[in-house]
Amino acid sequence: MSESVNPSSTDLRAARVAETEERIVAAARELFVRDGYAATTLTAVAEAARVGHRTVYVRFGTKADLLKRVVDVAIVGDSQLIDLHSRDWYQQALNAPTAAERLDRLADGVAALMARAGDLFAVAQQAEAVEPVIAEAARAGRAATRDSQRAFFTKLHTDRLIPVTVDLDWLCDTAGVLAHAQTYLLIRETLRREPDQYRSWLRTTWNRLIAAASAVTGPPPED
Question: Does position 188 have pLDDT exceeding 70, yes or no?
Answer without folding.
Answer: yes
